[in-house]
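name: query_chain
kind: protein
chains: 1
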Amino acid sequence: MPEIPSTVTLQQVADAAGVSLATASRVLHGSGGRSPTEALRARVEDAATRLHYVSNGPAQALARSTTSIVGLIVHDIADPYFAAIAAGAMRAARAEDLMVMVASTFREPKLELDYVRRLRTQRARAILLAGSAFTTGEFLTELGEELAAYTARGGRVAAIGGHGLGVSAVEPENHEGGRAAGEHLLALGHTAIGVVAGPPQLAAVTHRLAGFREALGPLPCQVATADFTREGGRQATLALLAEHPELTAIFALNDLMALGAMAAARELGRRCPEELSIIGFDDLPTAVDANPPLTTIRLELTELGAAAMSLVLAEETQPPRSILAPATLIPRASTAPAPAPASS
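structure:
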């Protein structure tokens, strides 16, 4: 008599049947979502029989017991960028009579992992990762393992931005937006350009900067990094202009940093845009009220949050999918043609 394995997992059954873990769970455990086709059901049941898979009844009963809570993980809810995303996500969740629990990681990867573990323990119905992805491989591996354990028990996950985790995502066109910012400054005749950037381990920073550099081609740009805040933008701009007073334009990788760049220009007596053009990214509500009104790259933030929440709550009948969120140049008064070189 052949030896019967005692540790066959649901993931092994899914792999043998060539289906997702969620599909295998729906066939064998009756977890949420639309019923699989008869062909998929037959494949999963055949694989389970061949592998001698035995379901853990008490564990599955617990897994199906979810709450009406959706976890929304952001970097900082006080940041207007994340506040706008949260507003859109909450509106979509309210339509489904669900409550959103918001957690701020303050850009600490370990804290993000801890929140995912807690939401899994509390059997939250879904998790939405709304902060920019961290680019460190070790973190992504750990996060992937936590999310796999969560989805294996019927949880759903979606993300804003390409986290490389194989989950559904709404992906802002950060690269395209960065390129549009570079093309705008080049069209205005700027060749001495600086960038104030947020933490380099954030994917949004990497993608926006890469698009900007692509637009500039061989033209160099000076880069200073700081916190993704107004004060970070101010400090980075002061440092840039102290070392490179010849700069005539600055691209700030978010609007808060751009507002800080404007403050730094005022401190130094550099008129914006006559002597220093400044362009931001995101188009926060405060951008149009800046003095002068801020040229920026617009993301529809509330719609982005609503779309991501709709993805995470949708019936999963297909593999994870991505939705692109366009980034659009909004020219305002903070950018102008490059000043003529001073005569010798």
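note: DSSP finds twelve helices and twelve strands in the chain.
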